[in-house]
Structures are given as C-alpha cells and as structure tokens.
Amino acid sequence: MLKLGNISLEVPFYQAPLSGYTDRAMRVLARAYGAPLTYTGVMLDMIALNKKASRKLLFRPGVDEKPVGAQILGANPETMAEAAKSFVNVGFDLIDLNFACPAPKVLRRHRGGYLQKEPETVIKIIQQVRDSVMCPLTIKLRAGFDSSQESRDKFWQICRKAVAEGIDAIVIHGRSVKNMYRDKGDWEIIKAVKRQFPQATIVGSGDVMDAETVVMRLKTSGLDGVIIARGAIGNPWIFKEARALWEGKPRPEGPALTEQGEVFLRHYELIAEIRPMLKSVRYFRKFAVGYCRRHPQRRQVQAELIAARNRDELYAAVRKWYGVG
Measuring CA to CA, which residue among 31, 50, 49, 100 is closest to residue 71? Predict the structure, then answer.
C-alpha cells in the first residue's frame, strides 16, 4: 500500500504525469488495466486561471478516472496557488508541482527544472499551494540542476525543507535537469533521500519500462513507491503485469493480437471524442508507436499505422494487422 496524504493506493506504483501523453484517453485505459492513480500531463498554471480553457473536456477529469491528480508547472507562488485551487474545484484529487521538467522552452521561462536553482522559490510555492488546497500535495524533482556540488546541495536543501513543510510525497527522477534523458538514471541518490528522511514518502522515477523493473525497484530500493512514465505509452498492460508480479503471482501472458487491436481502437476513439478527426489521427501516432512494440511484425505495422491519414485508413490498418475493427 502507498499513502499519499489521505489517499491510499492498494499497490505502490501508479501512472506518472507525462507531458503530451497522459490525457483522459491514456488515463482511462491505465485505470482499466490496474493503475490505482493517474495524473494529467504537465499543465501551465495559467491554463487553470483561464475560464474558457478550464471548461474544456481536455482539462477536466471524468468520474471513471478517480482518483486522478493534476500536475502544475509555473514559477509564481501566488499563481501556482490559485491554479491548484482551480484544479481541485473542477474535480482533481491531488496536486503535483513540477520542479523537474528539462525541456529547453520551459527552462528559458524559469519554470520546471530551472527552479531547482532557486530553492527559496520552490519552498514558497509549496507553502502557498499548501495553504490554498486541502488535498494531497506532491512535488516532482530531479537529482539537481546539473552535476555540480552546488546543484546537489540545493537539491538536498529542497528535499529537507519540503519534508519540514509536510509535503505528502517527493517524487524523484534520478537524472539531473541538464542531463535530460541521457544515460541511466541514478537510483542511488533516490535511495539516499529515503535513508535521510525515513519518515517521508519518497517515490522513484526513471527507466521503468516493464513490470519486472517496477517490482525490482520496489524490492531493492527501500522506497515507498515507483511511478511508471514512458513504459506505459501504448502499454496499459504494464499495470496489470506489475500488479501480478508484486502480489507474487505469475506474470500474465501478453495480450493476444485481437486484444491489442481492441485497446488500440478504444484509445483512439477516446481521443476522437474531444479532438477533430484529422488532429486526432495525427495526435494518436505517438501512441501507435508504443502499441506496435508488442506486435511480432512491429516495424511493418508501425509504418502503416503512422502513415494513416484519416480514421478509415487507421481502421483498415488495424483490421489487417490485428483482425479487429
């Protein structure tokens, strides 16, 4: 079990916030296959303060997703607090503050991972958001802004003060902001945080691409939980498989081609509910790449699915390769 404030999860892993991916469609399928909690992709604080934008289905959780959290990106404590309140008011159950995003356009605006250079701002944001909402509050960090000792010292300063503020969980990705996704993540630094703050809830992130890795990290790290990010793209079955292994059961057999095709189309249709057809087909291509990984002829399948220009062509390719649709 994993406790995040007043929310208890029956298994110690969940779907990570993933920019550009974890929309309603991906969240619904993750829940259906065993994720006890899902999050939005990162959302700018200003979106929540824009009444027209926040009314869109794209930014509102469904009753079939709960519990579901919202991850917020911003740099102004007052605006972040107002955004958190707004997201809770539209139905989100948890708030995650993103101080980890390494995207250059985010860093240029002094948001996300850039704020690991400014521990005082991070703590002010935590304090003001905590004062504005009653729901569980978590933060996402990386292991420093870069590899310098100064960056590592500031990372520890943030962890220490966040724990003192009573943060409900610290989620840590074991790469620096500057390292983006190069090399392997350093899980030793994440373990060290848990050893330093045994009373705090510490969740690990990075390179969790299959169910075996989920369980291995949980059993060998001493952490309270693990989040699954890129490993869940086009692969909702990872949650079902991780649950079985965590409970000491045999790993379930992989989904048959017909099930893969059915879930593929279900994912697309959920996207098409809130996006125009041409945009939905283009947007879905990045998920199609993930789904194809389980097909024995993945390269041929991937080429045809990505080449689909509209719904009819997409369905035709799925019928050809998966026998459904």
Answer: 100
pTM of the model: 0.94
Distance CA 90, CA 257 (A): 38
CATH superfamily, region 2-246: Aldolase class I (3.20.20.70)
Domain boundaries, given as residue ranges, for the chain: 2-246, 257-322
Residue type, 267: H
User: Which of 240, 246, 236, 169 minimizes the C-alpha distance to 214?
Assistant: 246
Given the structure tokens 């041929």, which residue do they identify?
A: 300
Distance CA 196, CA 130 (A): 23
Burial of 283 (0-12, 13-18, 19+ CB in 10 A): middle
Structure token digits, residue 270: 């959920």
Q: Which two tokens stand for residue 231?
A: 């490993």
**In CATH, what class is 257-322?**
mainly alpha
Q: DSSP for 171-211?
A: EEESS-TTTTT-S---HHHHHHHHHH-TTS-EEEES---SH
138/39 Cα distance (integer angstroms): 12
Reading the block at residue 80, the tokens are 């972040």
Q: Please write the tens of the pLDDT for every residue from 213-265.
A: 999 999 999 999 999 999 999 999 999 999 999 999 999 999 999 999 999 99
